[in-house]
Design a protein that fits this description.
Number of helices: 7
Strand content: 5-15%
CATH superfamily: Alpha/Beta hydrolase fold, catalytic domain
CATH architecture: 3-Layer(aba) Sandwich
CATH topology: Rossmann fold
Number of strands: 2
Order of helices and strands: HHHHEHEHH
Helix content: 40-55%
Number of domains: 1
Shape: globular
Distance between the termini: 37 Å
CATH class: Alpha Beta
Radius of gyration: 17 Å
Length: about 130
């Protein structure tokens, strides 16, 4: 696997991510010019104004929302997760102390337990210390 892919994954995952998993995550992106074209179009089309407008509407969602966020991610500070959860009328945040951004790669069992607990009616809110 390329050095760039490994370096990027080191930013978002604490542990070494197997090459097969990265290949699964990237799908056809590295190989299909049409997928790359669409991805570039998506990235160029992102607008912060649109994102902020949508964020203002998130509180209209009536359901419970669990935001799982890393407490130690170098790219996405925990405060961003707290702010995202606050966008929802019934949002809550749980901090993942050890993983980086890709919690599902670093702590899949821990994450599954949080989701199961939330769906079962628990896990209302857990703030970082």
């Amino acid at each position: 696997m390329g050095l760039v892919r490994r370096a990027v994954m080191a930013l978002v995952a604490r542990g070494r991510v197997p090459a097969v998993r990265i290949t699964e995550m990237l799908g056809r992106l590295p190989y299909d010019p049409g997928v790359r074209r669409d991805f570039r179009k998506l990235m160029r089309g992102l607008r912060t104004g649109v994102t902020r407008a949508v964020a203002r509407e998130l509180n209209r969602f009536p359901g419970r929302v669990l935001v799982v966020w890393s407490g130690k991610d170098p790219l996405f500070p925990f405060d961003h997760g707290r702010r995202l959860a606050a966008c929802f009328a019934r949002g809550s945040v749980v901090v993942a102390e050890r993983p980086r951004a890709f919690v599902s790669l670093d702590e899949p069992d821990w994450l599954a337990e949080r989701i199961v607990g939330f769906v079962a009616g628990g896990e209302e809110s857990h703030d970082a210390p």
